[in-house]
Design brief:
By secondary structure, the chain is of the alpha+beta class. It is built from 11 helices and 10 strands. A hairpin with a 2-residue loop joins β1 and β2.
Length: 433
């Protein structure tokens, strides 16, 4: 694929057909026109509206993933995501057929392959920089919270287990971020791209396997990243096999070389690359710093301490209720941690996850009220309000209306100790613990 060669290269038919399919599919997946957030939204919104319509139309008439598609909502593997994948594969196949019919005589796509590889490189740079910088601040996966530590291991879904596994160790998460940032740096420069592609394939394959094996709902996206890495890897397969397998001298890489004949082309290339590097680094860096400051700012002073509280008294309409373990609707314990709370109960008054009910809370000083809130799509909606009183530094009472009943609770702070929160590390270990 030497662009500078005097004699045009001849690609076999199968290679030209595969390239046409891959080109159409990757262009649709990468969507380079959506990379720049500086583009006014009113321009890009038509693209998103058309994509939504086309995915829904394709699903209704051909794919039938689900009758009503669910848009991406934190999960990238929703029915909409799968319908969109089938749509792009279908368009790529149709585009390949039409392209092959109209362009039968072309001997190769060397120059077009250069541009595809260029955008694939920069796409991987952008993704690696975003997630890598976030991990450098140990902000993608957080250390297990009190709510998570108090939840039995068997109640967790695989994704949450893997998230806590990585979040537990800040050094490991930072190391993962360093590898992704290194991938971005190596892929930016043509001389180091080969090493960057090899490292990127290893890094993103590991991410893909985590997603597949722990049911993390970013499977489509991670497979797409690995596919993009494989495109670049295949382009250099001859050189890589020579060096690593056959123990022969590898030829000089020419895939990323292009002859910019005009001076304005060379200047424009430099300006665009500088702009891309600034955006790819500065935006995730700014966002990560802001998120880090927000997550590590001192918590607001609270009249009730953070901790795990066990229920010691409960009454409904002034009638004491026995504290039975078999009573699934009982508020058996309450955990408070910097505005985030959870209750061990089978009651559905709050959002339930992992056999606990989760809520946000705040205190009102004039009437000593505790406000329970639920986070609905980023908006905090008040679920109930109760009055509270401190019996001592470790005990508080709550009373008010719950549904149609007047209820009162007394909670006492426990001295619950979680070994996992100790962040243990031992060079010398005499036995498995």
């Amino acid at each position: 694929m030497d662009i500078a060669a005097d004699k045009p290269l001849f690609w076999p038919l199968w290679k030209r057909i595969i390239f046409r399919f891959v080109f159409v599919f990757l262009v649709l997946q990468m969507a380079p026109w959506t990379w720049l957030n500086v583009i006014p939204y009113f321009i890009l919104k038509y693209h998103y509206q058309f994509t939504d319509w086309l995915v829904n139309w394709g699903n209704t008439h051909f794919f039938h993933v689900r009758q009503v598609l669910v848009s991406p909502n934190g999960s990238g593997d929703t029915s909409f995501g799968w319908a969109q994948l089938w749509l792009y594969l279908t368009i790529a196949a149709l585009g390949c057929i039409i392209w092959s019919g109209l362009d039968r005589k072309r001997q190769n796509y060397t120059q077009l392959n250069y541009w595809l590889c260029l955008f694939a490189r920069y796409y991987l740079v952008m993704v690696a920089a975003i997630y890598g910088i976030m991990k450098l601040f140990a902000m993608q996966m957080s250390f297990p919270s009190l709510h998570q530590l108090a939840t039995p291991l068997g109640d967790y879904l695989p994704m949450r287990l893997s998230w806590m596994f990585i979040g537990y160790s800040a050094p490991y998460q930072v190391f993962s971020g360093m590898m992704e940032v290194l991938v971005a740096a190596l892929l930016l420069y043509r001389r180091t791209t080969t090493l960057g592609v090899i490292l990127a394939t290893a890094v993103f394959t590991n991410v893909m396997m985590l997603n597949l094996c722990y049911d993390i709902p970013v499977k489509i996206y991670s497979m797409e990243l690995v596919f993009t890495c494989l495109l670049l890897l295949v382009n250099e397969s001859d050189r890589i096999i020579c060096f690593f397998v056959l123990n022969k001298p590898a030829a000089q890489c020419s895939i990323y070389q292009f002859n910019y004949t005009k001076k304005w082309m060379r200047i424009t290339r430099i300006i665009l690359k500088i702009a891309f590097v600034l955006l790819a680094v500065s935006m995730p860096l700014f966002n990560s710093i802001s998120y880090y400051k927000s997550a590590h700012k001192p918590p607001a002073k609270s009249p009730i301490k953070n901790g795990v509280y066990e229920l010691t008294q409960y009454s409904v309409n002034k009638q004491p209720v026995p504290l039975l373990i078999t009573d699934t609707l009982l508020w058996q314990d309450m955990i408070l941690e910097n505005g985030s709370g959870s209750i061990k109960t089978g009651e559905n008054i709050f959002k339930r996850r992992y056999n606990r009910s989760y809520f946000n809370y705040s205190f009102g000083s004039p009437k000593r009220t505790m406000t329970f809130q639920e986070n609905i799509d980023g908006t905090l909606l008040t679920t109930m309000k109760m009055q509270y009183a401190l019996t001592d530094t470790n005990t508080f009472k709550l009373w008010g209306k719950k549904g149609n009943d007047s209820v009162s609770f007394e909670f006492k702070r426990t001295k619950r100790h979680f070994q996992l929160a100790e962040r243990q590390f031992h060079w010398l270990s005499e036995k498995n613990r």
